[in-house]
């Protein structure tokens, strides 16, 4: 999985600030012990208190700035994502916001919980061995109990359910006119309601565990401090320990547990943020290349040479070896999730292979000028992206009379953002018309163009596809036999491997 840019430097800076805070804790505790035993206010105490305030404020300012910068980078990354639009929208809003609890809350607390207890224990061993041994034995109980309770957290499940809900809800909203037309709106409303209830249940379970863990951590920390304080009181009475040492231990002991309690309190909220961060960094994004080579016009020969694509821990393609001859029409078949759309994304240059290469007429695709390559390609995705403007502008100047028969304004009809005002079939035909307008393109890529269409619209799209294919190299991702019949060869993909 890609690493968040600047994270190592961020952790190093937090460590430097943490060391400074740990030093001020020791000096402050010694100054308080001197003050409480009649020694008066020392300059060292005032300096330590002021320095601790400044270091804490600096840490808060630094974490806020880094988090804001990191979230801006994550949003820019998601704008190039090639994942489901609904899932991407949820990640841009809720997902990026959730990372703040991990970056600005949990990570600084974890750094302090690693540095301050060690500094406190080192000082306690020089002051009183018995108290140091008690703190050494009890400090690990807080992360131990926190880990035992945290193992049952549902924050990851909660985030997964939220992304599914966001993606499905966006799809339902987009297709609401079609759903109402076919009487399926109520059924989808029930599905959305069930998904929302599942997310709410997961949230309640997570909150229950979070409240329980907070109670346990506070109880363990309080009892641990009591185990240190009670013996100190008895030893102070019988004179086996000086008042200054006793006050020093009582001032230092809570400081050993405080960072661990703070980290434990932020653990459950940070789990959701960490899960969202991992998903955002692993999300497939469009590759921005700067190749300069151009290719000859005409139908290209395409060779996949041991091409693999990994999205984080997910393997989309695995060492694919495939040759598509110039002018050949290839049908890609296979179950959903087998890597067909990923293969098209690699061929379009939107996704870079994790390993291997794609050769176009013997030239590595990565070295080609991306803009000229796309100009030589006619592409019809599963969901064509339409923009605000007239129907003629969206079809690239291509007239498609069977689309405008049910639109009162014809080719001057205004299309809303993402194709608002058009049915799913009309949007697909507009996308096909746009592909047909690419008369100079030597490569045709169609990603299930007849999916979710009725028989009449499917026949129209198939007729347009037959017009588009002659004299061009074509890759057709197909589920239906009618589209597969247009190909000269069929290749099956299964779990990212050609069969």
From TrEMBL:
ABC transmembrane type-1 domain: residues covered: 1-272
Segments traversing the membrane: 7-27, 33-55, 100-125, 131-151, 209-234
Region forming the signal peptide: none
Protein's membrane topology: Multi-pass membrane protein
Pfam families in UniProt: ABC_membrane, ABC_tran
Domain called ABC transporter: residue spans: 302-499
Subcellular compartments: Cell membrane
One Gene Ontology term of the molecular function aspect: ATP binding
Alphabetized SMART domains for the sequence: AAA (SM00382)
Record keywords, A-Z: ATP-binding, Membrane, Nucleotide-binding, Transmembrane, Transmembrane helix
Entry-linked CDD domains: ABC_6TM_AarD_CydD, ABCC_MRP_Like
InterPro entries, alphabetized: AAA+_ATPase (IPR003593), ABC1_TM_dom (IPR011527), ABC1_TM_sf (IPR036640), ABC_transporter-like_ATP-bd (IPR003439), ABC_transporter-like_CS (IPR017871), P-loop_NTPase (IPR027417), Type_1_exporter (IPR039421)
PANTHER family membership: ATP-BINDING CASSETTE SUB-FAMILY B, COMPONENT LINKED WITH THE ASSEMBLY OF CYTOCHROME' TRANSPORT TRANSMEMBRANE ATP-BINDING PROTEIN ABC TRANSPORTER CYDD-RELATED
Protein name according to UniProt: ABC transporter ATP-binding protein/permease
Gene source species: Amycolatopsis silviterrae
Phylogenetic classification of the source organism: Bacteria, Bacillati, Actinomycetota, Actinomycetes, Pseudonocardiales
């Amino acid at each position: 999985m890609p690493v968040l840019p600047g994270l190592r430097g961020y952790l190093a800076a937090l460590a430097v600030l943490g060391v400074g805070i740990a030093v001020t804790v020791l000096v402050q505790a010694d100054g308080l012990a001197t003050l409480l035993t009649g020694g008066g206010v020392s300059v060292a105490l005032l300096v330590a208190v002021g320095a601790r305030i400044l270091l804490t404020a600096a840490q808060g300012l630094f974490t806020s700035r880094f988090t804001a910068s990191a979230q801006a980078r994550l949003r820019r990354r998601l704008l190039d994502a090639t994942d489901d639009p609904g899932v991407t929208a949820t990640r841009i809003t809720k997902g990026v916001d959730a990372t703040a609890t991990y970056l600005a809350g949990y990570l600084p607390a974890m750094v302090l919980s690693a540095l301050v207890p060690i500094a406190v224990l080192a000082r306690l061993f020089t002051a009183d061995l018995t108290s140091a041994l008690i703190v050494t034995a009890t400090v690990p109980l807080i992360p131990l109990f926190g880990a035992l309770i945290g193992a049952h957290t549902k924050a990851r499940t909660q985030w997964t359910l939220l992304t599914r809900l966001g993606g499905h809800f966006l799809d339902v909203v987009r297709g609401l006119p079609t759903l109402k037309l076919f009487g399926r709106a109520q059924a989808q409303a029930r599905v959305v309601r069930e998904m929302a209830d599942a997310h709410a249940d997961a949230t309640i379970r997570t909150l229950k565990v979070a409240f329980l863990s907070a109670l346990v951590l506070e109880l363990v920390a309080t009892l641990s401090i009591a185990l240190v304080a009670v013996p100190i009181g008895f030893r102070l009475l019988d004179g086996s320990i000086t008042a200054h040492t006793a006050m020093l231990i009582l001032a230092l002991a809570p400081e050993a547990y405080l960072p661990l309690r703070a980290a434990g309190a932020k653990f459950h909220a940070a789990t959701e943020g960490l899960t969202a961060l991992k998903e955002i960094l692993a999300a497939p994004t469009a590759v921005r290349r700067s190749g300069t080579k151009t290719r000859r016009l005409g139908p290209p020969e395409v060779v996949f040479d041991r091409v693999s694509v990994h999205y984080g821990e997910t393997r989309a393609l695995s060492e694919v070896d495939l040759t598509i001859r110039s002018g050949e029409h290839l049908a890609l078949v296979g179950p959903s999730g087998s890597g067909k759309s990923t293969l098209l994304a690699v061929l379009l240059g939107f996704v870079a292979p994790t390993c291997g290469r794609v050769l176009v007429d013997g030239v590595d695709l990565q070295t080609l000028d991306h803009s000229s390559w796309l100009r030589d390609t006619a592409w019809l995705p599963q969901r064509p992206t339409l923009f605000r403007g007239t129907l003629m502008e969206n079809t690239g100047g291509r007239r498609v009379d069977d689309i405008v028969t049910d639109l009162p304004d014809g080719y001057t009809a205004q299309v809303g953002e993402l194709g608002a005002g058009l049915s799913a079939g009309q949007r697909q035909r507009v996308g096909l018309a746009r592909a047909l307008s690419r008369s100079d393109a030597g490569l045709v890529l169609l990603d299930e163009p007849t999916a979710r269409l009725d028989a009449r619209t499917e026949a129209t799209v198939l007729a347009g596809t037959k017009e588009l294919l002659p004299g061009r190299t074509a890759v057709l991702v197909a589920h239906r036999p009618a589209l597969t019949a247009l190909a000269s060869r069929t290749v099956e993909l299964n779990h990212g491997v050609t069969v």
